[in-house]
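Entry:
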Amino acid sequence: MIRTTRAVSVCVLFVFLTLAFTFPMGQHLGSAVEDYQDALLNVWITAWDGHQLLADPLRLFDANIFYPYPRTLAFSEIILTNALVSLPINLATGNPVLGYNLALLLSFVLSGFGMYLLAYRLTRRSAAGLVAGVFYAFNAYKLSNLAQVQLLSLHWLPFMLIFLDSALKGPWGDHKGSPRQNAASRGGRLPELVSLLAEAWPPSRPALHFALYLVLQCLSSFYYAIFAALVAGLYILCFLLTSRAATSLLALARLPVPLALASLATLPFARPYF
């Protein structure tokens, strides 16, 4: 487990790196955006999301463009999690550009910090975490798409994988598992169905956090919802290939309920696109 002081230091480091890599954006947070096309569209989307969530959330997708067509917000990405981040700033300042830019910069900080935590969990090496975090947050792909905040919004993915790993392997990622997993792997005679149900309900805290970050990633960009599903699927496949059958079966039993909850939370926002 990473110490709080180290975590804060790493987070502060990524704040400074974000300001350096995006310079001079930090000097014009409330008055300028990356360009006058996609960036302005995304400022409007995040401002509309916040406004409509407070005014009439059941008609979120009936945006004030392209009248009389319905569900016009679905003509582009919803960018909902960025809108939630920028909403308090917009309410406090009345400046949607400031809220948008701060949410954009936060995506770099969380990308770097999240990947640092994931790499540190897998390697137990702080240097490996820093290298992974820097490359994940400040690669050429992200820095060349500053106007498309939906393409920058990959910052929930590392947190999703951290909690998926914890849900499957245990809090330390050491495959020690729960008592039921250990009993099953030693050939214990616990009734298999009862053991599976006991692992599935109630869902563990890491499994619920996995579902939460999966939803946050999906609602940041539906492009990346597909990638999140692929990455999670590949990770689960690797877990199955490297774990004993009894252990992996009981671990997998923890996922259906959180996945169902994530699907239910995402579906209302995905349906207008179809």
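Residues 179-187 have pLDDT under 50 and may be disordered.
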